[in-house]
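Dear support,

Our group has been running a series of protein-ligand predictions, and this particular one with S-adenosylmethionine is the one our PI (initials K.S.) wants archived with full inputs and outputs. We had some confusion internally about which version of the output was final, so please treat the block below as the authoritative record. The input we submitted was:
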Amino acid sequence: MSKIVPPRTYRVKSFGCQMNVYDGERMAELLGAQGIAPALEGEAADLVVLNTCHIREKAAEKVYSDIGRIVKDAARGDGAIPLIAVAGCVAQAEGEEIMARAPAVKLVVGPQAYHRLPQMLARAIDGERVTDTDMPAETKFDALPARRKVGPSAFLTVQEGCDKFCTYCVVPYTRGAEVSRPFADLIAEANRLVDAGAREITLLGQNVNAWTGENGKGRLIGLDGLIRELTALPDLARLRYTTSHPTDMTDGLIAAHGEIEKLMPFLHLPVQSGSDRVLRAMNRSHTSESYLRILERVRAARRDIALSGDFIVGFPGETDAEFEETLSLVDAVGYAQCFSFKYSARPGTPAADMDGQIATEVMDERLRRLQTALDRDQLAFNRATVGKTCEVLVEREGRHPGQMLGKSPWLQSVHFTGKAGIGDMVQVELAEAGPNSIGARLLEIIAV
Ligand code: SAM
Ligand code: SF4
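Confirmed final output from the archive:
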């Protein structure tokens, strides 16, 4: 075993969902606590962590092309290949294969084991190739350093894993069973996030609305209860949550949208398909009808709520007529923004072995038609907000001089020019709707 020079700088590159972004931030904090500094923009890092996503084939393939690029870049530079670590769901699902296929990788760590990164790193420096894809009983969260510095909008993972077993999805296998983090830990972390500069917190979970726990008085509460408790943090201006499952949209959570001012008027509620036969084959526990009823109730609670969803086209056996049902559902809802994907057969999931796998060209055409409809609705939603006055949380500077960027309550990207700082809450008038963003006029700075 040949030893490696201990890394002085690191770079964490996260792919996929917001939960991966959160994990990436926590890994960075962990490496920072070891005295390893983040590599500067454009500078080669001594340690590269690829925090991967396994949800679709394309996402998984990116890992190998990234490893290849890192090795090539090193050969063009001083020839020193950085210490490459693969984390996230590809690491969990294909750890052994990565080690066999990519000799440059020295460390493989699953999403439930990354709190052990410092010990693994020490072994890798000693020349060992280390894999840890355990799902240990102890929670990683207890072993992570406290949050120090975050942006105005921060993520907080409250729930992990999934017991729903949709037939296309790898999450129950890569992230394990559904687990809710304890209430007290979440309140403590939320406090630290606010102290570190967060004005908005997005609560995260693969099924975030399945979160449940005992509050400070020992009473069993759901996500709506947690949101209510978090509104007590005076310096926290906004709360969001994602991603939800229709089955776990409780009466309390629906009512919360009408009652809690700090809860932003936005709901991401994936439906996947508008066909009940396809939904059954996907093992989704809702129908298109029951899904639409939930949205109706949410809209009744909060009239201006912006709706979002996820769709999969080309699930095995999906007929043209069934795909048309998805388009009809889209027309019925009028989404503000959505994610849509071609079905990707994931090894080990039941759908991968189903009859009727759909040809790529058919999926391409369905995705094109679906995205045309979703883009149309997104632009219509943005146009309908023009003329409205609303608050924007300023998150960063734009590309043009004096331009600032932030989010509206409806999660639209808003840009405006004016003297406001990052972290300010400003009042704007939405003025110009584009397909992906809104131009606004700054009216006043409400809070700095
Ligand atoms: N838990 C959430 C739910 O139930 O809707 C979604 C979490 S999943 C990480 C995000 C999205 O990826 C899913 O809503 C689905 O649309 C998409 N997805 C998952 N597996 C997929 C697959 N095999 N092929 C294509 N898209 C997939
Ligand atoms: Fe995957 Fe379904 Fe669980 Fe969402 S609910 S993470 S799509 S298995």
